[in-house]
Design brief:
alpha/beta, 21% strand, 9 helices
């Protein structure tokens, strides 16, 4: 059996931090895993900016409630789930993902957890497991599944390369140029056709 593993932000929904950056007027928060390969460094930097501006979970969740899936994402996911199992592997947090997952039809998601203080300030975060996307793909393979994977960022490359088939989707020109052997798609229909051909 094949399980398709998908990134969420940038693939199925807009990047949460970019949307929050626009709403909050803090351009520095536009930086994502497409720009910074070191996730720990990126998150510590983000939390420092939030603290500096006195922003917490409530403000971010208010923006997330207004975010809709990317056009065609729900239909893509519905059709993909009709032909194989799908797990979303995301480095986002359960406190962020809830509203977005509901809008996507409640697919399975594996993600991380924020540590939140009594006043709603984000004090830290707990990764589900180290190098979670690659580790999860390897764990699925260890119990007899083949995996197909797709994502857009540096932190997706491990799971894409470890899978029997993997694709970049709406990635950056730099990531595509650095990984010329990986098929890269911009449209959901093209990604869907590629995945179906590898099932």
């Amino acid at each position: 059996m094949v399980i398709t593993c998908l990134d969420m932000e940038g693939v199925l929904v807009p990047e949460i931090w970019i949307e929050f950056s626009k709403e909050s007027g803090i351009p520095e928060l536009c930086r994502t895993t497409r720009d910074e390969p070191d996730y720990d460094k990126l998150m510590k930097w983000r939390l420092g900016i939030l603290k500096e501006h006195g922003l917490g979970i409530k403000e971010i969740q208010a923006v997330i409630e207004k975010i809709d899936p990317l056009p065609g994402a729900r239909e893509f996911l519905d059709e993909l789930r009709s032909v194989c199992q799908v797990i979303i592997l995301s480095d986002t947090f359960e406190q962020f993902a809830g509203p977005l997952i509901r809008k996507l039809g409640m697919p399975t998601i594996f993600c991380n957890t924020l540590e939140i203080g009594e006043g709603g300030e984000i004090t830290g975060y707990k990764m589900r497991i180290e190098n979670s996307k690659l580790t999860t793909v390897k764990a699925l393979q260890s119990i007899g599944y083949d995996t197909v994977a797709s994502g857009d960022s540096y932190n997706d490359l491990g799971m894409i390369r470890a899978s029997k088939a993997g694709y970049l989707f709406r990635s950056t020109e730099k990531i595509k140029a650095d990984n010329p052997d990986l098929p890269a798609f911009e449209e959901f229909q093209d990604l869907l056709s590629a995945i179906k051909s590898d099932l």
